[in-house]
């Protein structure tokens, strides 16, 4: 098995850790953005998962 030329194993590990940390920060930022967008919606639109369908038609909370 041939070794890759270039960066050492320690340097690749550090690069991978930095990339994973950046990905985690971006994921957290996007989650915060999603929460802000949903909270900006009116209550009827952001609480629609609480609605229960009634047999005769319609829905209630």
Protein described:
A two-stranded antiparallel sheet has the order 1-2. The termini are far apart. The radius of gyration is 24 Å and the shape is rod-shaped. It has 61 residues and is mostly helical. It is 59% helix and 7% strand.
Topology overview:
Elements: H1 9-40, H2 43-46, E1 52-53, E2 59-60
Antiparallel strand pairs: 1-2
How do you describe this structure in short?
The chain is built from 2 helices and 2 strands. Helix content is 59%, strand content 7%. Strands 1-2 form a two-stranded antiparallel sheet.
Secondary-structure element sequence?
A: HHEE
What strand line-up does the widest sheet have?
A: 1-2
What's the Cα radius of gyration?
24 Å
Number of strands: 2
Termini Cα gap: 63 Å
Percent in helix: 55-70%
- Count of DSSP H/I helices: 2
- How much beta, percentage-wise? 5-15%
Biggest sheet statistics: 2 strands, antiparallel
Mean pLDDT: 84
Secondary structural class: mainly alpha
Give the low-confidence spans: none
Choose one word for the global shape.
rod-shaped
What attributes does this structure have?
61 residues; mainly alpha; two-stranded antiparallel sheet; rod-shaped
